Amino acid sequence: SEAKSGRTDLIFLIRFRHCCLLRNQRCIVAYLYDRLLRIRALRWEYGSILPNTIQFHMSAEEVEWFNRYKKSLATYMRSVGGEEGLDLTQDIKPPKSLYIEVRCLRDYGEFEIEDGTTVLLKKNSQHFLPRWKCEQLIRQGVLEHILS
């Protein structure tokens, strides 16, 4: 109000303060955007459930944003890829080959591949199978990827 009334010496200080406020606002928005990018990367790295040690350091709004992002990604993955959907989080880096050599760690029984052939998975047997079909069994501890 004093600057409007005629004190022109205050105009410089008002502009300087305004520029400082705008700079601080840009810094805060950049910081928050970086946090959101990191939270989005956590979904791809850890999956749909975050460890408690990470979730402890997040605000309630960040946890809510993570849950909405998780639901949005799941909806999208179900909408593409036919009946089963397409799991985009499965192969973040492209595989070197489509088939891998695996060793069976325990008796599992018959396992059907997409071309209709069945493979008998017995303990200590080795097979050359499509990567995408065996990844779930590798995670369950039925198969072990043999690196040669």
Automatic annotation (TrEMBL):
One biological process term in Gene Ontology: DNA strand elongation involved in mitotic DNA replication
Subcellular location: Nucleus
Transmembrane segments: none
SUPFAM superfamilies: GINS helical bundle-like
Domain DNA replication complex GINS protein PSF1 C-terminal span(s) in chain numbering: 96-147
Keywords, ordered alphabetically: DNA replication, Nucleus
Record-annotated GINS subunit domain positions: 11-80
Cellular component GO terms held in the UniProt record: GINS complex
Highest taxon of the lineage: Eukaryota
Family of the protein in this entry: Belongs to the GINS1/PSF1 family.
Subunit structure: Component of the GINS complex.
Its job: Required for correct functioning of the GINS complex, a complex that plays an essential role in the initiation of DNA replication, and progression of DNA replication forks. GINS complex seems to bind preferentially to single-stranded DNA.
Record protein name field: DNA replication complex GINS protein PSF1
Gene source species: Anseranas semipalmata
Phylogenetic lineage: Eukaryota, Metazoa, Chordata, Craniata, Vertebrata
